[in-house]
Amino acid sequence: MNQREAGHPRGCCDSTGQGELQRLFKVKLARRGIQLVRANKSGCLDQCELGPTVAVYPEGVFYGGVCPDDVDEIIESHIVNGEPVERLRIPDEILNTTHKKDGAGSPDRRRAK
Predict the structure, then answer these.
(1) Per residue in 71-96, pLDDT tens?
(2) Given a cut of 60, is residue 109 above it in pLDDT?
(3) Is there a contact between 29 and 37 (Cβ–Cβ < 8 Å)?
(4) Which domains are present in the chain?
(5) Which parts of 7-111 fold into alpha helices (H)?
(6) What is the CA radius of gyration of the chain?
(7) Which helix (H) or strand (E) holds 63?
(8) Distance CA 14, CA 20 (A)
(9) What is the pTM of this model?
(10) Which residues, including other chains, have CB under 8 Å from residue 8's CB and lie 6 or more apart?
(11) 5-10 own/partner pairs: CB under 8 Å, 24+ apart
(12) CA atoms within 13 A on the CB side of 77
């Protein structure tokens, strides 16, 4: 939920300042009755170039370029079934760097369906 001024070279995870992803996770987890998982707000996770980021602990899995349409898939696949969503996962080799997955400023969003 970090914010930066418009046009900053590293981008901004929450340019609207509304915390929409966190709110969606919180609402959707509650609707499913999942009480042992918290959807917490966070400051900077230092993954700016990779778009809005979600971190799942205790596994330490970081997802990049997350959009509202991805929330249900992350909950179902990762939280409920224990299987990370590989198409959104930030690879360990670029985690906490300024390197990009596809060279265009956001993770490769191709769906493996």
Answers:
(1) 999 999 999 999 999 999 999 888 87
(2) no
(3) yes
(4) 20-94 (3.40.30.10)
(5) 20-31, 71-73
(6) 14
(7) strand 61-63
(8) 8
(9) 0.75
(10) none
(11) 10/48, 10/49, 10/98
(12) 15
